[in-house]
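Methods — Computational structure assignment.
A single polypeptide chain was analysed. Its primary sequence is given first, followed by the predicted tertiary structure written as structure tokens.
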Amino acid sequence: MNSTTDAAVAGKPATPSLAGARRATRLIFLVSGIGMSAWAPMVPYAKARLGLDDAQLGLALLAFGGGSMLSMPFVGWLAHRLGNRTLIVASGLLMCLALPVLAMVTNITELIGVLLYFGVVLGAVDVAMNAHAVDVERLDGGRLMSGFHGLFSVGGLTGAALTSALLAVGVPLTAAASVLAILLAVVVLWLRSDLLDDAPTADTPRKEPMRMPHALAWLLGLLCFVSFLAEGAMLDWSAVFLRDVRGISAASAGFGYAFFSAAMVVGRFSGDRFVGRYGPESAMRIGAALAAAGFLLVACVSGVVMSLVGFVLIGLGASNIVPVMFSAAGRLPNTSPAIAIATVTTLGYVGLLSGPALIGLVAHISSLPMAFAGVAGLLVLVSFSARIVK
């Protein structure tokens, strides 16, 4: 840590720096959410433009989760050695480059390549910003993680809704993606100076050895697998579900993910208070059960309105599962927060790696509603396992 951080730990005045770090952390969560969710309305366009069926699209989407999963062990090491600020800025700018390219791919090979790259840089942003959030939460002394993730959900709402709105009024897909990319890059460059400067220097090198993550990090990662699978189902398949199963136009299908993201915002901005009052175990148990009920509603009850209600329930239920797990991982003893979070998110992104393909395979064999019902069953298991976050 730098001298400002050391001063905060020692009780010396560092409020302006800490306030700036909180603001910058919120902004990078917002940017990451916008960048990732902007892809959701593009999925039906890519499917139609390239002539893909459900199984082919599912296999192509493997690259997104695969890129993140493969990069995260190295990202944890880089964040540990170079500092979270350096990694946040570099990977955030690289993320912006992917958006207009995703709108221009002309064949499945290009789609796979760009999704692989997109997954790598989003995974880097994810690990570094969550490790930075753990440091800020520790310095602040209160519960902040759900609020940080709430800004990610605001980004999810903003990115999906804004992209869908631009497409609905006739803005070309490439132009819409390019505008978002430029705006996000400007924000990343602006917030850089407020991030905690935790890079090692000649006076304070990082000599501590790389240790294996705590055993609980692996267990948390298995539960994170299911949660990421559920969120990935919303990102990659909600628009397809509304278009192909409920008959909504492609230009408006992205609003399903926007409803999900709006519910995530509500849940996460109230999450720090809820977790502080009732504890992380209750937050995780109740949330997983509510998300399971939402998936069952979407899968089993016909009608666009009921599907949107189901998306809202999924968002409310899933809103605090990941923040609770990340906060727990960042506080594990004898493990660097970046490495612990990298372990949890790596296993989580295995859910993004296998989830879209599995959902696509089940949809191809039976139906997309049946695939959603399977996700509900996995979330019930998470609810029964909530005691681990104690």
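Note: The CA atoms of residues 279 and 390 lie 8 Å apart.
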